[in-house]
Amino acid sequence: MTCLMSLRDVRRRLPVVFPLAIGVVLVAGGGLAAIETDTVSNYGEGVWWAVSLMSTVGFAGETPSTPGGQVLSGFLMVFGFATLSLVTASFASMLVIEEEEPEFEAARVTEAEVLAELKQVRDQLEALEARISRGE
Length: 136
Description:
By secondary structure, the chain is mainly alpha-helical. It has one domain: Helix Hairpins (Orthogonal Bundle). 84% of the residues lie in helices and 0% in strands. It has three helices and no strands. The longest helix has 68 residues. The chain is rod-shaped and about 95 Å long. The mean pLDDT is 83.
């Protein structure tokens, strides 16, 4: 059940991840255009580089020539892998949950029945303890 809840939490975060990824692409596009002046000639090309790096396609031309460009490119690659992994895992979990939902519901029903039985046993035990303390 804990795993199921964490997968639902991941899916709830997807609406935050997409705008964040778009923001990272737009900011990184400007950064690449500013840092990699030899290989990226304008902002649009910088955004294209950022998209290609984040989508794991690779560089859209030459590799970065400056240390700042290399660091930014490395960040974009890792962020892209993380974003794609999160999206893939979310879609996969939706498919699994649909197939596994009857089993999860059966487990919830069983858990409720067991808890009811335990409450009944506890109540009986308390009644016996009360009778013993009264000397019956």
